[in-house]
User: What shape does this take?
Amino acid sequence: MRTYATFREIQHDLQRGALTCQDLVRHHLSNIEKKSHLNAFLSVFPEEALERASLIDQKIKNGTAGKLAGLVVGIKDVLAYTGHPLQASSKILNGFISQFNATAVQRLLDADAIIIGRQNCDEFAMGSSNESSAFGPVLNDADNTRVPGGSSGGSAVAVQADLCQISLGSDTGGSVRQPAAFCGLVGLKPTYSRISRYGLIAYGSSFDCIGIFAKCVEDVAVVLEVIAGADDEDSTVSRLPVPQYAEELSRTLSKSYKVAYVREIDDAEGLQPEIRDAIQRKLDHIKNAGHSVDVIDFPLQEYVLPTYYILATAEASSNLSRYDGVRYGYRSPQTTDLQSLYKKSRSEGFGKEVQKRILLGTFVLSASYYDAYYTKAQKVRRLIREKTKDILKQYDFIVMPITPTTAFKIGTHTDNPLEMYLADLFSVQANVAGVPAIAVPCGEDKLGLPIGLQVIADDFQESKLLHFSDALTKMN
Amino acid sequence: MNSLREKYTLVIGLEVHAQLLTKSKIYNSDANAFGSDPNTNLGVITLAHPGTLPKLNKKAVEFAIKMGLASHCEISRFNIFDRKNYFYPDLPKGYQLTQDRTPICKGGYITVTVKEGDRDVKLNRIHIEEDAGKSIHLEGERDTLVDFNRAGVPLIEIVTEPDIRTSEEAGALLSEVRKMVRYLDICDGNMEEGSLRCDANVSVMLKGATQYGKKVEIKNMNSIRNVQRAIEHEFDRQISLLERGESVVSETRTFDANDGKTYGMRTKEELNDYRYFPDPDLSPMEVSDAWLKEIQDTMPELPRALAKKYTNEYQLPEYDALVLTDSKDVAQYFEAICGRTKNYKAASNWVMGPVKSYLKELSLTADEFPVGPAIIAEMIELIDGGKISYTIASQQIFTELLKNPNKTAFEVAQQLNVIQDSNQDSLMPIINEVIKEFPLKVEEYKHGKKGIIAMFMGEVMKRSKGKADPKVANELLTKKLKEV
Assistant: This one.
């Protein structure tokens, strides 16, 4: 069976009987097996996926199939799927089986998508290289000595290596866009609150977004319109109606857009020259296509990363308190009393990166430092959001890199974790401001490693964002 | 010790937790029910499974607002929920959702009645929070058992200012709060089962001082009486410390009902830094004008307002008003009688007398009282109309009605053949007969021994088989005695 570039082609072949869902599942299962060294999946559900495939094949014959019939999906190990293991790539959730479906997962299933497995990631989605997983690193399929990015590394590699058609990941500070860039994919982080977070394991609740990995913008659009929208289980989710993103993509791009490029980013330390050049070339294409590009200032750039790390870790320190060895998951066998139950279970159950972030978050929330860190970071966050929104009032999009470098070698930043945090330099702004952002492929570096380009739009402007990104991928 | 007490002022602030009577928990749809088997009222949200999110039960907010309106508080229109972080096995999320910075109700006061009269106890706030589960330490067992049924049950915490000066006031405040939550139907007010809980902050200072002393927080008092005992004990204990030149340690103490003393708990808790911060999982909740109006419109009459109505409008003694408004069911029953008769004092007597003693004897509430208020009103009218006597009504008719609650009082009176005779034509022959039979007594009466009329009345009643209307009979008898 051939590899399909778009879900539309798959549906076309399914409809005319040239392909079955069972073929698709078998194809991906065989790829998963062949590429098992990539360590992208933590569990694969072969029998179940095949069974569902045959059921959906029947539905297609009967003409009763849902919108996503034939879409083979992998889900990051932070999304709840009834009866399946769920452990955020952490030892602390050893043996945990979810008793409910995440809203996004439920909506995929309702639309007849097939879930093929759960994907490796950084522990509790904390990391930028997928090296913090309790189940070992995921390898980049473009170069097996390099990381796939993180934290949704398994989800990115699974699409990159055709182990599934699309993946659901999560993006708290860039965890979908950064691995998408490292793996040459399209990766969307929608507006905060566009997709229900119910069933998504929390890291930084006010930043967390479910995101989508695909080979093309079109696939992202069709999945987004299924999983987005109001949900009684999440009081923070937006009740705005969900546009028909896929249909709107087919309209011709007639408008001339105003694009902003941030000067401070061009001057950023450690930005790989090939990435700067690739983006400059793309900006030229954009201008040539009749859009305008202005270089603007964003003086708050240097505050984005600290703001993110203070607030996200503060929330994480509290979000992860429930993993205490009392009701489920890992409990240290060395436990002697209540204090040791907590200390030992959590010290043995959580990896170093997670422990570091819990400690950091606990510190910034402590009574003596609360105002100096948490309160101040909240104020700066509001400023960053206001300033970003101001720009997006004047411009349709902000274009910038996603990562300062292309995929780095496994182990590069092991000794200097701060360097690793810098990998999030460009991706966190969209999370801090809450606006939607997408990664689209933008050429390769000298070594043939993918370069990604980021486009940011205003709140709930996904339709416009997808439309423009789709055009970008076709500009050469 | 009593003379030493004169030197000091006692300062008390109370924190009263009331479990709200919502059908489901505050942040999910698990049942809120007391007495279920352990660990049965729980789902993934109560157990804080990974990926779960809270969703606010609006009923709990409505209940809190009701208490706020009843306590003259300002209602916060914009509400944020905060996380209070600490580890304990009965706290599934590792944090409690509460309101730290924006309590739903701010300020306000509750009026209490003490020996010296009424006074307003100032409130600091009323906020909404969730209860924790229950840790059960069984005697001799190494392990602790945890029951999560109570985890996530909605609570309001009513926090007073340090505005209470005696244990009597503290008790009065608690019973007023209990009465209010029951009238509002937001909490069953049961302190023994823990649906109403109270912590007391107690300190002492020299009379005339402006700076409060170090305060001690007392926990584990499961009755109003015990709250008062604990305060009394703490008053003396703190005075003794100060008189010995020692200082009061700011700590949490537990009350032991067996010996009436307080004991220091681990001071570790004092060191707890709860790291409060706004919960990013619950969107801020706004109380709209329309919603607030809707709640205001459904507010029931409260005990104090009712009692005032009874003394002013119904002209009842204060004691009656207090007894009648003590519980909502009794007040409602009384009100229902008053809708059908204007003899409010009689209605009060009936309720405070025969009705309440029957309820007490069988541990029933007034809603469960078999005889309807309309029948009591009918009896009052029959008595006032001279058709039956109070004695007959309270002794015979009432007893019969309890057995046959579907009959009217008149039907029962007829059946018992106790309708009074106030007809002169039928009474006169009996009176004439009695006067004829006791000529010596008549002579005595005429010579000033007026008390002897009771003997004549007794005879008339006997011969009329109790049916003679005493008032009419007395009038006729007096008249006749003058004539002969």
In short: Chain B has a mean pLDDT of 92. Residues 224-243 of chain B form the longest helix (20 residues). Residues 104 and 289 of chain B are 14 Å apart (CA to CA). Chain B touches chain A at residues 44, 47-56, 83, 85, 87, 89, 92-95, 144, 146, 273, 275, 277, 280-283 (CB under 8 Å).
